[in-house]
Design goal:
eight-stranded parallel sheet, NADP_OxRdtase_dom, AKR_Detox_Biosynth, alpha/beta
């Protein structure tokens, strides 16, 4: 793929849509996961994001299932050198647990992740949820050890308050410790306000790669929800309807479909292309469970919006 992007201040080059691995071991079994990953790679994509606790929420799971499936695929296909592998540490394994970024915990968990992923290094190791009871320096020193041991190449952060992110970057500079090169926030056409108000200037100042999750707002921006009746057809429909199907949400969906029709493409492709057109965004994270989703990824990379289309989407989604 020609239009690769460099991940922040690193030497990692990625195709600008990242596969979201939360579906492995949840809505896709191992065989289905292998098929979709084969197709993803065949289409020129090369980055996969997962976490040590995916997909603990699925009945019968305990966490680690996603990493294990990816690891089995990497081993069977012998293609580790073709993949930029991203995983996370510190998130919960259930509703009764808390985020944990203590040094001992990170060092314990990285071994489990490496074992499941069947690799000896992780390209991007991310703080999944910030544990504010742990000193920032303790977490960064744990990452420093892992980088020195060759187990991790670069580090990033996901769910972290702006002030803690700013402080982390400052401590890295002051103490000469590894520095977060990326931020993984929730950001999409619907969920704009928190990122744009609180993080945008900080990431631009620090040249952080931004790799947003929920790029399609849990599927709300995929084009399949056009009326009240459509939500009843999906297992996740009720929750999506409650969260997004208000006046603003309906305005966004209408604008998405207008632009998709004008560009002869899909709503999903337009929603991803809008993210790709934002100055601060390196690559959105999106999940796929069928071939048509991957085709939408490809289509998103081909879209070159005119000013009118961007203005229409921005106006519909303004907060």
């Amino acid at each position: 793929m020609e239009n690769k992007r460099v991940l922040g201040q690193s030497d990692l080059e990625i195709a600008p849509i990242i596969f979201g691995g939360n579906v492995f071991g949840w809505t896709l079994n191992e065989t289905q996961s292998f098929e979709i990953l084969d197709s993803f790679l065949d289409k020129g994509f090369n980055a996969i994001d997962t976490a040590n606790n995916y997909s603990h929420w699925a009945p019968g799971n305990k966490g680690g299932e996603s990493e294990a499936i990816i690891g089995n695929w990497l081993k069977e296909r012998r293609n580790r050198d073709k993949i930029i592998l991203m995983t996370k540490v510190g998130g919960r394994f259930g509703y009764d647990t808390k985020p944990n970024t203590k040094a001992a915990y990170i060092k314990e968990q990285v071994e489990l992740s490496l074992n499941r992923l069947k690799t000896d290094y992780i390209d991007l190791y991310q703080t999944h949820y910030d544990d504010e009871s742990t000193a920032i320096e303790e977490t960064l020193r744990a990452y420093e050890d892992l980088i020195n041991e060759g187990k991790v190449k670069f580090i990033g952060a996901s769910n972290i308050k702006k002030d803690r992110l700013k402080e982390s970057l400052e401590i890295s500079d002051q103490q000469n410790l590894p520095k977060y090169i990326s931020l993984q926030p929730e950001y999409n056409l619907y969920d704009r306000e928190n990122y744009e108000k609180n993080y945008l200037s900080l990431v631009l100042e620090n040249n952080l790669a931004v790799i947003p999750y929920y790029s399609l707002a849990s599927g709300f921006l995929s084009g399949k929800y056009l009326s009240d009746d459509d939500f009843a057809k999906s297992a996740r429909g009720e929750g999506i309807q409650k969260r997004y199907w208000n006046e603003r949400g309906q305005r966004i969906v209408a604008a998405l479909n207008d632009v998709a029709n004008a560009y002869r493409t899909t709503a999903s492709s337009v929603a991803l292309a809008w993210l790709l057109a934002q100055e601060s965004i390196t690559a959105p994270i999106a999940s796929a469970t069928k071939e048509s989703h991957l085709e939408a990824f490809q289509a998103a990379l081909q879209i070159r919006f005119g000013e009118d289309a961007i203005q229409k989407l921005n106006e519909a989604s303004k907060y």
